[in-house]
Amino acid sequence: MPALARAGFRAVAPDLRGYGDSPKPRDIDSYKMNLIVGDVAELIESQGGTCILVGHDWGATVAWFVAMMRPDLVRKLAILNIPHPSAMARELKRSGAQKRKMLHAFFAQLPLLPEIVMKLFGKMVLRMLGPFTRQELDDHARAWRGSLRTMLNFYRAIRRTRGQLRKLIRPIDVPVLFIWAEREQFIVPQALEGWEAYGVRDLRIERIAHARHFVQHDAPERVSQAILRFAQDDAR
């Protein structure tokens, strides 16, 4: 965000519903994708109407669907590490390796137990996934207080609405930057293949060799430079 701001852009990082200081409805149905997309769409409209949309992890999943459901709001789409939803569904269907890598997501759909595990071991898990400082880990833990159930409801809502999500898939006509950490722990690299079949017509892939899932922490300068080049490239 500071790199974008120094280049003259306005960067806005919202808490999605269920996270941070945003509202936290307790029921699972409040985390259906069409509702999350609606939140982001309203935010974009309130800030001027169109944007370059950047997302990582759950933010990336939401960003894919915003670009498909509200293409009028997205000039360009930058995604960190989370492949196109149809490519993910394809690999989960055909790849045992992908199923194993996503066991955490299946576990998160269970009632109550994931909240207990995250409360006890969440900081330890983050420490294994990225170069977080002790202060950053403490900040995350404070942000989780009162939010564990609602954060995990994203996973539970996805399980309930898989059939509905397939109906939301649309071609993406805007330029897409995909930043891929080649040591990504949760996604098989085969999920990067065949996106043209899903209507991704203008794709640029930036590969970062020694980064993991939290690529923006492992390689902050590379990620900032890639997004900045993409944002400034008016020819695409």
Task: Please tell me about this protein's structure.
It is a single chain. Strand 1 (51-56), helix 3 (58-69) and strand 2 (74-80) form a beta-alpha-beta unit. The chain is of the alpha/beta class. The chain has a single domain (2-37, 45-232), classed as 3-Layer(aba) Sandwich (Rossmann fold), CATH 3.40.50.1820. The longest helix is centred in the middle third of the chain and has 17 residues, at 113-129. Helix 2 (33-46) packs across helix 3 (58-69) and helix 7 (113-129) packs antiparallel against helix 8. Strands 1-2-3-4 form a four-stranded parallel beta sheet, with helices on both faces. It has helices at 2-6, 33-46, 58-69, 85-94, 96-101, 103-108, 113-129, 134-144, 148-160, 162-166, 215-218, 220-232, and strands at 51-56, 74-80, 176-181, 203-208. It is globular.
Give the class-level CATH name.
Alpha Beta
* CATH superfamily descriptor: Alpha/Beta hydrolase fold, catalytic domain
Assess the beta-strand content as a share of residues: 5-15%
Largest sheet: 4 strands, parallel
Number of domains: 1
Q: What distance lies between the first and last C-alpha atoms, to the nearest angstrom?
A: 22 Å
Q: Strand tally, please?
A: 4
Strand order in space, largest sheet? 1-2-3-4
Tell me, rounded to a whole number, the average pLDDT. 94
**Oligomer, anyone?**
single chain
CATH topology: Rossmann fold
Low-confidence stretches: none
In DSSP terms, counting alpha (H) and pi (I) runs of 4 or more, how many helices?
Answer: 12
Helix/strand/pairing category: alpha/beta
CATH architecture: 3-Layer(aba) Sandwich
H/E topology pattern: HHEHEHHHHHHHEEHH
Helix percentage = 40-55%
Rg (CA only): 17 Å
